[in-house]
Specification:
alpha/beta, Rossmann fold, seven-stranded mixed β-sheet, 12 helices, 14 strands, 18% strand
Length: 327
């Protein structure tokens, strides 16, 4: 097994999917000749040709709409939205068509498409380039939402998404595209959608996160372990459908629950997870659940982003307070 980056793992997954199934097509703005703005799709057009890996106009609505038509007619499109903040023109097609087509056709048609989206902040980018869009896409019935935190998961989850019969929004944490390497099997494999991963077992606090923040939570958990605080870290991996059972069983063990996310606080994914725990594991809680989120503001530009973006130090502070909290 070779040690590769998360970016390389995604590229490898796309390469293997295209090699194994001629129905798979990859496209987006600069996705073909340039290999994407982050070079995630580099080399694929040269290998598979312009008919299967191609560039599109700067029109996110067209990118999403074309994917729906391709999927309904037998292809397996893997389309790219260049940056998370550019997805909004595509929401009309995603919400009114992709997410509804199985219901609209009474099961006669499904929409097996994947929409890849570089996701989240932490890279000091321009406006519209550092959004956390979970609350927009995860609230739409009919869409599945996936985000990896490691190279191994990136490959396995993407291959599972490509083979899923329903539309999948695949959020790629751009902050960790090249941040570290992990040994990844060269052969094709899939990680089932809807299954969380216990990254680090613990007994005092359950912390759930996803994407780029998982490794930050891991580091914070290791730091407070020196103070005798045992944190169970869970990588949600799939936001829709999410793994309720793993979260519930963890809270029954620890009695305390915390969510860490870049997304906004109000009406965000942290609220959903905490509400679920209150409904399903309330009598096991030893303190009120905590959410550490982004602020309810537009993501600041480069020089102010660090005030908004979560940090290991802030997570440690929240963990200490929750550890000492009483019912």
């Amino acid at each position: 097994m070779a040690a590769i980056t998360l970016l390389q793992a995604i590229n490898q997954a796309l390469d293997q999917a295209m090699a194994n199934d001629e129905r798979v097509v990859v496209y987006g703005e600069d996705t073909g000749f340039e290999g994407g703005v982050f070079r995630v799709t580099a080399g694929l057009q040269k290998k598979y040709g312009e008919a299967r890996v191609f560039d599109t106009p700067i029109s996110e609505s067209t990118i999403a709409g074309a994917a729906i038509g391709m999927a309904i007619n037998g292809l397996l499109p893997v389309a790219e939205i260049q940056f998370d903040g550019f997805i909004f023109p595509a929401l009309t097609d995603l919400v009114t068509h992709a997410a509804r087509f199985r219901n609209r056709s009474r099961g006669q048609y499904s929409v097996p498409m994947v929409l890849r989206v570089p996701h989240g902040g932490g890279i000091r980018a321009l406006e519209h380039h550092s959004e956390s869009i979970e609350m927009f896409v995860a609230s739409v019935p009919g869409l599945k939402v996936v985000t990896p935190s490691t190279p191994y998961d990136a490959k396995g989850l993407l291959l599972a998404a490509i083979n899923d019969p329903d539309p999948v929004i695949y959020l790629e944490p751009k902050k960790i595209y090249r941040a570290g390497r992990q040994e990844v099997p060269e052969e094709s494999y899939q990680i089932p959608l809807g299954k969380a991963k216990v990254v680090k077992p613990g007994t005092d606090i359950t912390v759930v996160s996803w994407g780029a923040l998982v490794r930050m939570v891991e580091k914070a958990a290791l730091e407070v372990a020196k103070e005798g605080i045992s944190v169970e870290v869970i990588d949600l991996r799939t936001l829709v459908p999410y793994d309720k059972e793993t979260l519930i069983q963890s809270v029954k063990k620890t009695g305390k629950f915390m969510v860490v996310t870049e997304a906004v606080k109000s009406y965000g994914p942290a609220s959903e997870l905490i509400a679920m725990i209150n409904e399903e594991a309330f009598y096991h809680l030893e303190a009120a659940p905590v959410r550490f989120t982004g602020f309810d503001i537009t993501v600041p530009l480069a020089r102010g982003e660090h005030y908004h973006y979560p940090s290991e130090e802030k997570i440690i502070s929240y963990l200490r307070k929750l550890y000492l909290a009483k019912p």
